Amino acid sequence: MSSSSQRLGDQAERDVKAWFREHGSPDADRALGTGRPRDRGDLTGIARFCVQVKNYAQFRINTWVPEMLEQKRRLGAEFGVLLLKKRGTSDVGRWYTVMELEDLNRLRLEAEGQIDEKDRTIALYQQALDIAATEIERLKGSTAAIVVDGRQPE
Fold it and tell me: CATH number of the domain at 3-100, please?
């Protein structure tokens, strides 16, 4: 990435961080180490969400959404969003948001009171189990040791 592109991306992340802080997420901050292999999104401190910010003239949704979903998985977030800077406006609240319909529907059901805390907790545990299973599969081919309850399984 060129230094000009990096500056544009950094500024977009700062703008989004400021917007979230002004709109109910005072802990929002830029994530350190973005772009690394174990990247977990561009912002932290936004409960339940993995947030990826993009500031490009051409949208590459088919590339960026899978990246965001992988970051969501790594973070263990319930929801993943891709924020795309809208050309011609500095109002971050008017930028575009891309997310999976499943996530949007879950948010809608919660807002309408159709999902209670028990259902949400069950979904979170299932997500954690899925993440653990994926990591175990990834580690099977590596030389890293898997430790369970302080012991290495045979």
Answer: 3.40.1350.10
